[in-house]
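Thread: "does anyone have the structure for this chain?"

Original post by V.I.:
We have the sequence but no experimental structure in hand. Need at least a predicted one for the grant figures.
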Amino acid sequence: MLQVNSITPWRPSMYAGSLPPKRLRTWREARARCNAEDFAKDPVEMTEFISCSRAEDSGDSVMAESHIPAIVLDIARKRRPFVGISGVTDTEIKRPISAVTCLEYINFNIRADKQNQFHLRAEMTEQDKEVIRAAGRNEDTLPAARVLRAKMQTERLYANVVQLTP
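Reply from O.Q.:
Generated one for you, tokens below.
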């Protein structure tokens, strides 16, 4: 299933020229659309979806852009904790807001979609299973296993699994 693994801030003034020309053009077009729709003060975000399911990093990716409404930023600035229900224990979970807990909460909601209404789930392949096994063995051979291991270090869901790995 789709999982969100990192958030990387990018501002044209900070990293001039760091985006490939096609992606920079996509961001500028999205920025222009928001400006034209009276959302010039609101941020435009770019999300890159990278395939990490193969044994080797293929570089396959898709970029999408979206407007972040001011009300969403206002909610985030209040820094109220995330509240959710554990799918395992049915107890309420409160976590302080941070980049890590934002990722965890996004992934929590994706995993909770048991009926696949978001269409983000797929059948696991043998390659997918080997990536999980490699991450559990602390192997550094598969790029996807490295990504999964890093994710396991930050998300609470994996806390007991991380303690079991040598």
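V.I.: this helps a lot. The chain is about 40% helix and 15% strand.
O.Q.: and The mean pLDDT is 77.
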